[in-house]
Design brief:
The protein has 728 residues and is an alpha+beta fold. It is built from 27 helices and 17 strands. Strands 9, 10, 11, 12, 13, 14, 15, 16 and 17 form a nine-stranded mixed beta sheet that branches. Strands 1, 2, 5, 6, 7 and 8 form a six-stranded mixed beta sheet that branches. The protein is globular and about 105 Å long. 48% of the residues are buried. The structure holds adenosine-5'-diphosphate (ADP) and magnesium ion. Residues 214, 341, 471 line the site of magnesium ion.
C-alpha cells in the first residue's frame, strides 16, 4: 500500500480549526506595523518628514543628512515595535520577493554592543545577490547590483524584521527587478496624464495609476499537498483522474465558507490589516477549494507591493492552519484555474477618478478623453500587453474556457459603444454651436446616467470597462502585477503624449477651441481603434477567427508571446517613455524565456519520475495481483478457467497496454528534452520545449489517468483529485 498517500489522508482527517481572536476593531489594527505618515510625524523631525513627503510627491532626492535622520526615526520606531533585524525588500526577476536580513545589533570596539542603523543602511545596500537572473546584464557590464530605498512605499515590520521596499539595479543603471521599471512607467503616466488632465482642470498636479487586484487561490490540506510530488515540485498536478464531482453543481461558488478556511481567512486578514493591506472581500470561487480575496484599490506601486506581501503572508498563515496555498494558474485539470484580475484606473491628486464621468459636460469630456485614449493605446500595443501576462503556468489558463483567450480585446458595453458611434459623426474642424449643444446635452451629457446601469458586464473579455475602471482579466494568479502594470502605464502614457501633441497642434495651427480639438482627435481615435472593441463571447471559436480577420495578434504560448518585447517598435516606445532601454528589454526577454524553459524542464523531469518510479511500479503490482488471481482460478477450474477469469484477463491486457504506452511516451519525452537542451539559442530551446516536449505531458497524463481508473484504489500512489479537492 502506498504509505505516503494513506498516511496523508489519515492526517488530513484529524484537522481541527483554530479559533482566531477577533477582538479589537480592524480600523484600530490597520497599519499598526507600517511606518506611515502617522508614525513619521511621531518619529521624524519636521525637516525629515517634509523631505520624505516631497520625495513621495515630486520624486525629489533625499540627501544623506536627512536620510540619517529618517533612519534614526525608523530605527526608534522599529525597536519600539520589537524588531531585531532590517532588510531591503526587493523584487528580482524571479517574480517573487527577496530579502536578506541584517541585525540592528552591532558590536562596538570596547566590547559593548548597541543597535545601529543609519542613512547609509537605509538608502542603499549591496546584497550579494549575484544568483538572481539578470538576463546577461551583469556579465556584459561586469556590474554589481545594489538595492535602493523606494520612499513611495512605506517600510513595515513583518514578524521581527523591518522591511524597506527597494528597487534592485545594476551600478550601470539597468533595472534588475520588476519595481524599477514600474516606478519609471508610473512616472511616465503621471507626466503624460497630468498635462492632459490640465486641459480640464488647471489645479491637477499629479496623476496616479490605481490598482485593485483580485487574488484567486486554492487551499488544499498540507499533508495531502505534500503527498504529491508534482504539487510540491511544480505547483500543479501533472496527472490525476478527474473527480466524479467537480464544479458542475456550482455548489461551492459563493457558498458558505468552510470553518477551517474561514479561520485561515480571519487569521490572514488580521495579519494583512496590521501590515496595512486593506483587505476587503473574501468568498468561495467556482472550483472546489478555490477562493478569492480582494482589497480596496490603492496607488499602483503600493498595491503591487501589497499583493506580493500578501502572497508571502498567505503561504505562512496557510502553513500554520495546515493548508498549502496554491497560486499556480492551473493546479488541477478539468476545473477552473486561478487568475488575478487587475482593476486599473487613473486618479488625480485633486481626488478625481479620470475614468469616472463627472457632473458637468467638461468633466464628461475629460472622462471620454481618458477612456478613448486607453482604448487607442491598447489597440496599438495589444501584442505588448499580451506579452506582459505570458508565463509557462498562465499558458494553461488563457483560453481554457474559464479565462479570456490570449487575444486582447476591449469590452465597453452597448451604451458606451453607442456613444462612441455617435462621436464618430462629429464634424471635422470647427463645430457649429448647434452641434456643440447637441454633443453636450445628448451625447456626452448622457454618460453619467448610462454608467449608472452599466450592468451588462461581459465576463469573457480580457480587458473590460466596468463603470469607472478597466479590468484586465488575463493576469495570472501567481504573477507579479508589476509586469502588466508597467506595460499598461507605458502604453497609455505614450498614447496620452501623442494625444496632447495632436490637440495642441489643432489649437495652435487650426485655431480650434480646446473642446473642438479634443473632439476632433477623439473622433479619429474611435475610428482607427475599432478592431480592438469586441462585445461578444470571448471564449468562443468564432472570435478566434474574427480576431484573425481583424489582424489582432494571437500568440498562444509564452515563447511566441515574448518575441514582441524586443521588436523595434517596442524598443522605441520604451525608450521614448524612459521606462526601459534596449538592454533591459533584451534582458527581460531572456530571463522570461529562461524561466519558461526551466519550468517545462522541471515538469518533464518530475513527470518522468512519477511514471518510472511510481505509476509503472503500481501498475505492475496490480498486474501481479491479477496474475495471482488468474493462477488460482486456473488451479481450481483447470481448462475452463479462461471463461471464469475473462474479466481479469481483459484487465491484465489493458494494464499491460497502458504500461507499454506510458513507458514509450515517457522515453520519447526524455529524448525530446535532451534534444531541446542541446539547442544553441535560448529562443530555439524555449520553442523546442514548447512544441516538442510539452505536448507529451498531455498524452502521458492520459495514459496515467486511464491506469488510475483501472488499478485497485489501495495500490494507487498519488492522492486522488476527489481526496485533495473535497477535504475541507
Ligand atoms: P468583480 O470584478 O469581482 O465583480 P468588482 O468589479 O467590484 O468585483 O471589482 C472590485 C475590485 O476593483 C476591487 O479590488 C477594487 O479595489 C477595484 N477597484 C474599484 N475601483 C477602482 C479604481 N478606481 N481603480 C482601481 N481599482 C479599483
Ligand atoms: Mg473582477
Amino acid at each position: 500500500m502506498p504509505k505516503t498517500r494513506f498516511q496523508a489522508l489519515a492526517e488530513s482527517q484529524k484537522r481541527e480549526y483554530k479559533n482566531i481572536d477577533e477582538s479589537g476593531r480592524r480600523s484600530e489594527l490597520f497599519a499598526r506595523q507600517v511606518f506611515n505618515e502617522e508614525k513619521m510625524l511621531q518619529f521624524l523631525t519636521k525637516e525629515a518628514f517634509d523631505n520624505v513627503k516631497s520625495a513621495i510627491f515630486h520624486g525629489s532626492k533625499i540627501d544623506r543628512k536627512i536620510a540619517d535622520q529618517v533612519a534614526e526615526g525608523m530605527k526608534a520606531w522599529a525597536l519600539s515595535m520589537g524588531a531585531t533585524h532590517y532588510t531591503h525588500w526587493f523584487q528580482p526577476l524571479t517574480g517573487a520577493t527577496a530579502e536578506k536580513h541584517d541585525a540592528f545589533f552591532d558590536v562596538l570596539p570596547e566590547g559593548k554592543a548597541m543597535e545601529k542603523f543609519g542613512g547609509a543602511q537605509l538608502v542603499q545596500q549591496e546584497p550579494d545577490a549575484s544568483s538572481f537572473p539578470s538576463g546577461g546584464i551583469r556579465n556584459t557590464f561586469e556590474a554589481r547590483g545594489y538595492t535602493a530605498w523606494d520612499p513611495t512605499s512605506p517600510a513595515f515590520i513583518y514578524k521581527t524584521t523591518l522591511c524597506i521596499p527597494t528597487i534592485f539595479v545594476a551600478y550601470t543603471g539597468e533595472a534588475l527587478d520588476n519595481k524599477a521599471p514600474l516606478l519609471r512607467a508610473l512616472h511616465a503616466i503621471d507626466q503624460a496624464a497630468t498635462s492632459v488632465a490640465q486641459y480640464f482642470d488647471k489645479n491637477v498636479r499629479k496623476v496616479y495609476a490605481t490598482l485593485g487586484w483580485e487574488q484567486e487561490y486554492f487551499l488544499v490540506d498540507k499533508a495531502l499537498a505534500q503527498s504529491r510530488l508534482d504539487l510540491t515540485m511544480t505547483g500543479r498536478t501533472l496527472v490525476g483522474n478527474f473527480s466524479a464531482k467537480g464544479q458542475q453543481l456550482d455548489d461551492h461558488y459563493f457558498g458558505v465558507i468552510p470553518p477551517r478556511v474561514l479561520s485561515f481567512m480571519s487569521d490572514l486578514e488580521k495579519q494583512c490589516t496590521q501590515l496595512g493591506i486593506p483587505v476587503k472581500t473574501r468568498h468561495n470561487e467556482v472550483a472546489p477549494n478555490q477562493f478569492e480575496l480582494a482589497p480596496v484599490f490603492e496607488e499602483a506601486n503600493l498595491s503591487v507591493d501589497h499583493n506580493l506581501l500578501l502572497m508571502d503572508v498567505m503561504e505562512e498563515v496557510a502553513s500554520r492552519h495546515n493548508f498549502k496555498v496554491l497560486f499556480h494558474e492551473k493546479p488541477f485539470a478539468g476545473i477552473n484555474g486561478s487568475g488575478k484580475h487587475n482593476n486599473w484606473s487613473l486618479a488625480t491628486d485633486t481626488g478625481v477618478n479620470l475614468l469616472s464621468p463627472g457632473t458637468t459636460p467638461m468633466k464628461n469630456l475629460q472622462f471620454l478623453t481618458f477612456f478613448v485614449n486607453t482604448i487607442k493605446a491598447v489597440d496599438t500595443y495589444e501584442e505588448l500587453l499580451r506579452s506582459s501576462i505570458a508565463s509557462a503556468s498562465n499558458d494553461h489558463r488563457l483560453g481554457a474556457n474559464e479565462a479570456p483567450p490570449p487575444i486582447i480585446s476591449i469590452f465597453i458595453g452597448k451604451q458606451l459603444s453607442d456613444v462612441l458611434d455617435e462621436l464618430e459623426g462629429v464634424s471635422k474642424g470647427k463645430l457649429s454651436p448647434e452641434e456643440k449643444t447637441e454633443l453636450k446635452l445628448n451625447v456626452v451629457g448622457k454618460i453619467p446616467e448610462i454608467l449608472l446601469d452599466n450592468t451588462d458586464r461581459n465576463r469573457t473579455s480580457p480587458f473590460a470597462f466596468t463603470g469607472n475602471k478597466f479590468e484586465m482579466r488575463g493576469v495570472g494568479a501567481k504573477m507579479n502585477c508589476a509586469k502588466p502594470m508597467t506595460m499598461l502605464s507605458t502604453i497609455v502614457a505614450k498614447q496620452l503624449t501623442d494625444f496632447k501633441k495632436e490637440v495642441d497642434a489643432l489649437i495652435d495651427k487650426k485655431n480650434l477651441k480646446k473642446d473642438e480639438a479634443v473632439f476632433n482627435v477623439l473622433r479619429e481615435y474611435i475610428k482607427t481603434s475599432k478592431r480592438i472593441r469586441f462585445e461578444g463571447d470571448g471564449y468562443g471559436m468564432e472570435w478566434q477567427e474574427e480576431a484573425r480577420r481583424r489582424k489582432l495578434s494571437f500568440n498562444k504560448n509564452t515563447p511566441e508571446a515574448l518575441q514582441i518585447i524586443t521588436a523595434k517598435e517596442s524598443v522605441d516606445l520604451f525608450k521614448e517613455m524612459d521606462v526601459m532601454s534596449e538592454v533591459e528589454l533584451k534582458a527581460r526577454q531572456e530571463v522570461e524565456l529562461g524561466a519558461y524553459i526551466f519550468h517545462i524542464q522541471i515538469e518533464g523531469r518530475v513527470l518522468g519520475e512519477m511514471v518510472y518510479n511510481h505509476i509503472i511500479p503500481a501498475a505492475i503490482r496490480y498486474q501481479n495481483l491479477l496474475l495471482e488471481n488468474i493462477g488460482g482460478l486456473k488451479e481450481v477450474y483447470g481448462a475452463v478457467h479462461k471463461k471464469v477469469a475473462e474479466s481479469q484477463l481483459n484487465l491484465l491486457e489493458q494494464v499491460g497496454e497502458h504500461i507499454l504506452e506510458i513507458k514509450k511516451l515517457t522515453d520519447e519525452m526524455t529524448d525530446a528534452r535532451k534534444r531541446a537542451n542541446g539547442l544553441s539559442t535560448i529562443n530555439k530551446k524555449a520553442q523546442a520545449y514548447c512544441n516538442n516536449v510539452k505536448p507529451y505531458f498531455d498524452t502521458i497524463r492520459e495514459q496515467s489517468d486511464r491506469l488510475e481508473k483501472l488499478i485497485a484504489d489501495d495500490l494507487w500512489p498519488f492522492t486522488k483529485y476527489r481526496e485533495i479537492l473535497f477535504t475541507k
